[in-house]
Amino acid sequence: MKTWTITLILLTATATQAVPSFTNAVGGSDVAYGLTTVSWGVPYQQPYQSGLAWTEAAFVPSPTPFILGELVHSNYPQAVGTSISAVDLNTHGLTFTLLVTETPNTGGPVDDIISFPAIMPQASFTTLGFGPTPTNILPYYSSPENGANSTYLWAEAPERIPAPRAFMLAIAGLACLRRKPE
Q: What's the domain range around 64?
């Protein structure tokens, strides 16, 4: 009879959750980065800068649309040439470029537009766009002037989602088989 000893070495994987942030604003003046915010511009005929804030959502990718997080756009008139045209949103370990179209508001308030360069497939999901519900998703967000306006950023995953390598290692562990001498 052969005797086997199985030594199981458990592997503990610690996932570090990076704090979401905004980086790499393009253009603009008086750009300021906060923990999960970015603001910009020289206020025009009112006291507030424009800006973005992000609240990350906890999610499990699924083949039906799910929320990545909530985007708030503080939209106020800014002096010409002082607004940004793009900024990177770093969330869920990924980076999304958001395009910011600041309108001149000549002849009255005009909505600003937040959009993507294109629909962006990521490693485990595809970014769908902005909207209040999964049945009202657009590739851009039209943000009314003179207020803080919020929308959700939506995504969907393929039917089969590959498990992250660290997760697979944690599940499998490292099994070392060694035969006891007879």
A: 21-161
